[in-house]
Amino acid sequence: MKDVSLFAVILLAVGSNALSITSSTSRMQQQVTGQMILAPLTKGGNLPFRRLCADFGMEVSLSEMVYARSLLRGSPVEQARLRCWEGEHIFGVQIATNQVEEGLNAIRKLQESAVVQFCDLNCGCPIYDVTRRGLGSSLLRSPQKLHKLVKGMVDGTDLPITVKIRVGCESDTVNVLENVKAIREAGAAAITIHGRTAQQGYSKDANWGLIQQAVAESREAGFGHVPIIGNGDILTHFEARRRMEDTGVHSVMVGRGALIKPWIFKEFKDNATWSPTARERIEVYRTLANYMKEHFGDDEMGRKKAWTFLPWHFEFLSRYSSYPEDEFAAQSIEKPLIQSRLSTSTETDVPLEILLANRSGDAHDVIASILWESESDEVAFRKLNEFSESVEFNNILNTGSSSEEDQVLANPLPGKAGRWSKRRGRKPGPKRSDEEIAAIRAARALKKQTILASGGEWPPN
User: Fold this and answer.
1) Among 157, 156, 146, which residue's Cα sits nearest to residue 184?
2) Are 275 and 263 in contact (CB under 8 A)?
């Protein structure tokens, strides 16, 4: 009789635990549905930047990728990546592992150290340092092994497990449907699909047709409740909405789009384009600098730590252009705007706009310094205006170095995963002649004189 009672208690406990896991997974699935999610971004996904995105309405975010093995060895760098801002309401930590026990131990570690709602398994990173270890996109080569890894992690924890993949590893082995099937049957709470192979990097447009196929097949197989999140080439709110409507994905994930304009989350929520003036963008950028001061410290050591990130962010912030829906919606259907390399904000003779759109690392360092040192938005606006019309910036226009893209966001060279080399930075554009510079300056001086004579403000806000 006692044995029967004990057996009943065990069954009750197991059932209660299973119910708890199901409940937490179901709750997480509801929370991520219908959202624009911030992608896990190496270097770009630092806490101050995620905090800035939260200011603009971001609700779901992920940490930078964390190496599970390094975390378990006590790496302070990996430990720091577990931290989240209190305004990140639904926060997940992405880990890189290829072993069940290692993954589960890392999950236990992050549950002890962080406020986390889910754990994401990285199966999409294409860079050599990751793939050479048998991690990231290299896991896509064997759907069977991937199924075993995901199932082991799902069965071993009550924390919802999500998986981020690409459509394949090499361009000639696209197996996204097989991998999605393996992952969903393993019990993953959600699946994010980046619409390119690892070998393609960012060199081709994301294949949303394959993502649509994965959504349709999952629904037909009875897994329509498992969110599929689409990722790739989203720069505007109307592109995001259209992708959701056309493909049936439950949510979208943005990476480069958020790095270029952190207010993309506001646009998505408002379903409207926000075209901030130069002054308004400077206020946003200074907010990021202030968040870095709070996070890293307002001293020499803090500045040194922040300088790993702050100037780098302008490699993407400098690409900002306004794309109103009524002007660019049709064009975005033909080709994603982020891949079109369109340039609207740089087609100007306003020095401040030219500065903010400049791609030189030298200019980015000066911008970051001015933002860091200015005691107010007004002071930052004035100093950046002065610098934009200075001889120093003119020299940068002629000889400044072009900053290289981060390895993770660069296009890998053709080859096998794990053998790709680092892509070289873009070559700087042609230098202007002295005559061209003199003509541009004369045109600017005339425009300034005309505006001031008519009672206007210079520079324009």
Assistant:
1) 146
2) no
Q: Could you give the angle at the alpha carbon of 124 between the alpha carbons of 120 and 130, nearest 5°?
A: 95
| Residue 88 φ then ψ, to 5° | -85, 95
Using DSSP bridges, classify how beta strands 66-67 and 90-96 pair: parallel, antiparallel or unpaired.
Answer: parallel
Please list the pLDDT of the chain residue by residue as tens digits (461 residues). Answer: 445 454 444 444 445 444 555 778 999 999 999 999 999 999 999 999 999 999 999 999 999 999 999 999 999 999 999 999 999 999 999 999 999 999 999 999 999 877 899 999 999 999 888 988 999 999 999 999 999 999 999 999 999 999 999 999 888 889 999 999 999 999 999 999 999 999 888 878 999 999 999 999 999 999 999 999 999 999 999 999 999 999 999 999 999 999 999 999 999 999 999 999 999 999 999 999 999 999 999 999 999 999 999 999 999 999 999 999 999 999 999 999 998 865 444 467 899 999 999 999 999 999 999 999 999 999 999 999 999 999 999 999 988 665 444 444 543 433 444 444 444 444 555 667 777 777 777 787 787 777 777 777 666 65
Active site residues: 125
Task: Say if CB 208 and CB 180 are below 8 A apart.
Answer: no
Place of tokens 């754990």: 119
